Each structure stands twice: as structure tokens, then as C-alpha cells.
């Protein structure tokens, strides 16, 4: 890699890590371009040479802060003895972490990121390849997928191949489980729940299990 490219990557990381620090100290809603630039030791104009939108900075910083989720999802899935069980465990891990850190998951999976959001996920792992070191090869493709509707498809495809899920029900299971999670997450983010986060997680996972049980049995 040429010196200029190395310098650009180094600068890019300065801004991402500065954003991480602000999130940890003040919360993701307090992140601004000026704060990040000041924390990194540069001006706002320099920052805009590397990031076209504030949402992109939040996305990359949130990804840094979700490393615990990436580590856990491999552990959860490895406990499953069949593709369908692995799919359920993947959801269990996703719900556990997302309801614990809803703002971070919103920044990564729900926030409007403008054009080509899938490119941001690829860019992240190109910049932080160490985050994938302990992730099994069969799981890695789903981690590069930002669209929640597509993340679980590979595991569901394997469940169909194993005869655990009717092929005709694959799309319904995928869409229904994702819509349940998105709906509950929106309620959490907008303070529209009449119960606590732990209950929200438990109910979401209960609905997801029910959908899978009914549709897998058809």
C-alpha cells in the first residue's frame, strides 16, 4: 500500500475512533461533525474529505462498539445442532444485543445511510479485518450484509436444504421474523412500550419462535 493510501486510512480511523469516544462518553445522539473533528485534532473541512455524511461516521463507530455482538453470534450459532436451531440462536443473539444497545443497532441496521449502504459494511471490514478473525467462514457472508431482511437467509436456506423448512415458507419466515424485530425496535426507540427492555426482548424472541414453529411445520 502506498504512503498516501496509508495516510488516508490512518486519518479515516482517527475520525472513527474519535466518534467512538464521543458515543461512549455522551451518547450517539450527541455526535456532531464539529465534535468529531475537534476530538481528532482536525477541522470539519478535513473530515468531509473522508465522510460525506454524519450518518456514515455513526455507522462505522457503532460497528466498532458492536464487536461483542460479532463475537457472541459465532458462539451462539455453534451451539445449534441443526440449521434451523442455528437460525433461532442467531436471532436470540441478535435480540439480546440489539435491545441492550438499540441506538447502536439503529445506526447500523435501520438508519438512512444514503446511497449504497452495503458498501459501508464492506469498507468497515476492510479497515478492521481483525474483527473477523474468530468468525467461522460460513457465517462471514451474513456479517457483510447490512440489510436485516437478507442477513438470515443463508441459515434459512440451509434449513430448507435439510428438510426442516418448506421452501415455500422461507420468504414468509424471513419477512415475518424481521418485521417483528423492526416493529419492537421502533417502539423501543420511540419510547412507546408499556414494559421494560427485558420484556421487549423476551416477547420479540417469543413471537419469532412462534412464527418459526408454525411455518416450519406446514
From TrEMBL:
Residues 9-69 form the HTH tetR-type domain. Residues 32-51 bind DNA. InterPro entries: Homeodomain-like_sf (IPR009057), HTH-type_TetR-like_transc_reg (IPR050109), HTH_TetR (IPR001647). Keywords: DNA-binding, Transcription, Transcription regulation. It comes from the Bacteria. PROSITE patterns: HTH_TETR_2. Gene3D superfamilies: Tetracycline Repressor, domain 2 (1.10.357.10). SUPFAM superfamilies: Homeodomain-like. The keyword DNA-binding applies. PANTHER family: HTH-TYPE TRANSCRIPTIONAL REGULATOR BETI, HTH-TYPE TRANSCRIPTIONAL REGULATOR RUTR. This is AcrR family transcriptional regulator. It comes from Bhargavaea ullalensis.
Amino acid at each position: 500500500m502506498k504512503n498516501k493510501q496509508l495516510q488516508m486510512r490512518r486519518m479515516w480511523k482517527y475520525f472513527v475512533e474519535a466518534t467512538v469516544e464521543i458515543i461512549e462518553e455522551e451518547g450517539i445522539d450527541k455526535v456532531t461533525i464539529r465534535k468529531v473533528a475537534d476530538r481528532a485534532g482536525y477541522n470539519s473541512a478535513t473530515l468531509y474529505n473522508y465522510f460525506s455524511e454524519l450518518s456514515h461516521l455513526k455507522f462505522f463507530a457503532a460497528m466498532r462498539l458492536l464487536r461483542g455482538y460479532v463475537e457472541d453470534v459465532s458462539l451462539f450459532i455453534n451451539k445449534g445442532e441443526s440449521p434451523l436451531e442455528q437460525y433461532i440462536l442467531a436471532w436470540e443473539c441478535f435480540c439480546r444485543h440489539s435491545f441492550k444497545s438499540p441506538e447502536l443497532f439503529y445506526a447500523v441496521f435501520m438508519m438512512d445511510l444514503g446511497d449504497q449502504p452495503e458498501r459501508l459494511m464492506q469498507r468497515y471490514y476492510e479497515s478492521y479485518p481483525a474483527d473477523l478473525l474468530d468468525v467461522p467462514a460460513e457465517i462471514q457472508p451474513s456479517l457483510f450484509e447490512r440489510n436485516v431482511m437478507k442477513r438470515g437467509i443463508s441459515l434459512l436456506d440451509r434449513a430448507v436444504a435439510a428438510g426442516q423448512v418448506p421452501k415455500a415458507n422461507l420468504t414468509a419466515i424471513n419477512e415475518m421474523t424481521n418485521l417483528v424485530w423492526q416493529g419492537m425496535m421502533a417502539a423501543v426507540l420511540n419510547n412507546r412500550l408499556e414494559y421494560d427492555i427485558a420484556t421487549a426482548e423476551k416477547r420479540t424472541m417469543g413471537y419469532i419462535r412462534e412464527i418459526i414453529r408454525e411455518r416450519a411445520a406446514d
